[in-house]
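> @MW can you paste both from yesterday?
MW: sure, first one:
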Amino acid sequence: YSGDGGPATAATMDAPTAMVLDDAGNLYVTDAGTSVVRKIAVDGTISTVAGTAEYGFAGDGGPATAARLARPDGIAIGGDGSIYISDRLNSRIRKVATDGVITTVAGTGMKGMSGDGGPATAAAFGYVSRLAFDLDGGLLVSDQTNSCIRKIVGPL
């Protein structure tokens, strides 16, 4: 991928998968092919907000731009402006807070189907795909491997 800091029309991506607009009109795009999340600002500039383009899992508790993701697939924006990413092949949901710090909010990283009713970080998911918030602030997660939609209740 390329183009950070320049016009989005001149940037390259490798498998943009999902996108969401924030309240300010910025567009966030998961680029599964390079394992990054990009932001296209309202002025048309593009930047990376999560991922290093190195496939894997690392970086919780640090800057999202130094973290490793594994084919981010889905994306949603929380009520506080935080970005939620389905880290597909890591079987986790990651959160980029408004200060740019990334954490895991759901999933153990082990593929499976367990943990309903308990802490989201102790739950096992398959390949997590799309994300959406419901009207109550719960995060809905499409788990393709297990052929189901799961709900994570807050606070996230």
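MW: second:
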Amino acid sequence: MFRKFVRDGYVTFIIRETIEVRIPIKIYERYSERYSDRDIITYCVQKEIYNHITGRRLYYITEESGIPLIGHTAFGLIDRGTNLIQVRPCSGCNLNCIFCSVDEGVSKTRVTDYMVDPDYIIGEFGKLADFKRRHCKNLDIEAHIDGQGEPFIYPYIVELIKKLKNEADIVSIQT
């Protein structure tokens, strides 16, 4: 699930080859006597989180964060009033295309990446799909996975697709 190494004063965890969590060594040593690495990664507040692919700061958005998934174009859910709901689980890209219209890529000017917890985005998708079905009968809901970058760098993409198949009539992806 993750690998761990020590560098530059931090214990660094690489989760699913995408999420990089850095915890100061002294903090890690204090907690490691009592807690598992998984608990330290989850609950330690003195940590820095990065996108391991792009090297940018990463905001991992959970339900507990209080950040809504509707209203931002870089992550979450976009409803344009049709049967299609855009699903944007993450931003960031492993390429560096000179023609990129959303300014993604390793050496571009963006400084922050976003990643949404899979359970949070699935739960909110289900609520939105149910609302649409209640107000428009015989509507085939399409979950369209796209992104402000490359959706296949999302470390939970397989789980996301499987769970969306239970909530949507059609699942499509644009890369």
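> thanks! The chain has four helices and twelve strands.
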